[in-house]
Amino acid sequence: MKNKTDTLILTGNFYSQLLSEYKQKITSILNKPEKYTIAIFYFKTKNNNYFSINQEKIFKQIGLNVKTIFTEKESEFIELLTKYSEDKNVIGINVELPLPKGFNLSNLSKISCDKDLDCLNPLNYYNFLINSNIDSIIIPSVANAVLLMLNHYKIQFEKKDIVILGKSTYTGLAIAHLLLKFNSTVQILNEHSKDIKQKCKNADIIISATGSVNLINKEFVNPNSIVIDVGFEVVNGKIKGDVDIESIKGIVKAVSIVPGGIGKLCNLSTVINLYKLINKK
Questions:
Q1: What is the 3-state secondary structure (H, E, C) of the chain?
Q2: What is the pLDDT along the chain (281 residues), one digit of tens a residue?
Q3: What value, to the nearest 5°, has the Cα angle with vertex 95 and ends 94 and 101?
Q4: Which of 130, 178, 259, 260 has the least C-beta neighbours within 10 A?
């Protein structure tokens, strides 16, 4: 849909149709999905666990049993990851990031590669990096969410100049590696980068994944800019993104919203990964 100033507002509302399609695919393989369990770990460390709550909802819609696990001890976390990785009735495992302070990120290697819903196991992540056939691999959910949005709205991103703000392994870096597979030219910027506003203005597409509320305003964009907001912060009980939409609406060609944008598609992406995993089996 377009607003009166012709800025295209990008939402994730199309996810429901895709979810229905993947539900049908998954249930046709599992036959009785209620026999199988998805294990989701959360830690109460940030943003009120919206991720685990929404993950639970989406997998229950498919008919799967969902077990949410809260743990404060790293030793227990490792023990339970190992336990559910070996349990034949558990077909998918996800972990809400960031891990608690003091937890070693290498613990994610305990997730069974064939149950890893968000490409968290280092072996799966490496396979994502080196494999150009995206249909055959699982993809970090945030990166796939961006791809789903660009494709749905028929936004040309191949061989385009793209700026990504944020260098986190499973967000900014993962998005960059996915878009590089399409011969895009990608710059990853951080707080130490020079001329950030000008680099954003020169880009065809700006993807912001910093968690800095309202970072992107009219000083970062031009009339041809396409802005994808991957930011997520909870401020006074309300979800906020990286982009000050009111500042750039009416200036840019397109901008995605938060909430209701990339977040919805992240949840869908883990469902897509589940289908890929069980289809291989």
A1: CECCCCCEEECCCCHHHHHHHHHHHHHHHHCCHHHCEEEEEECCCCHHHHHHHHHHHHHHHHCCEEEEEECCCHHHHHHHHHHHHHCCCEEEEEECCCCCCCCCHHHHHHCCHHHECCCCCHHHHHHHHHCCCHHHCCCCHHHHHHHHHHHHCCCCCCCCEEEEECCCCCCHHHHHHHHHCCCCEEEEECCCCCCHHHHHHHCCEEEECCCCCCCECHHHCCCCCEEEECCCEEECCEEECCECHHHHCCCCCEEECCCCCHHHHHHHHHHHHHHHHHHHC
A2: 444 458 999 999 999 999 999 999 999 999 899 999 999 999 987 666 888 899 999 999 999 999 999 999 999 999 999 999 999 999 999 999 999 999 999 999 999 999 999 999 999 999 999 999 999 899 999 999 999 999 999 999 999 999 999 999 999 999 999 999 999 999 999 999 999 999 999 999 999 999 999 999 999 999 999 999 999 988 888 899 999 999 999 999 999 999 999 999 999 999 999 999 999 87
A3: 170
A4: 130
- φ and ψ at residue 190, rounded to 5 degrees: -135, -175
Q: How far is CA 45 from CA 51, 72, 169, in A?
A: 12, 10, 18
Number of domains in the chain: 2
CATH number of the domain to which 252 belongs: 3.40.50.720
Residue 96 to residue 17: CA distance in whole angstroms: 25
Residue written as token pair 């993950």: 55
Tell me: do 99 and 166 sit in the same domain.
Answer: no
Would residue 129 count as lying in a domain? Answer: no
Domain hosting 170: range is 140-263
Pair type for strands 238-240 and 233-235: antiparallel
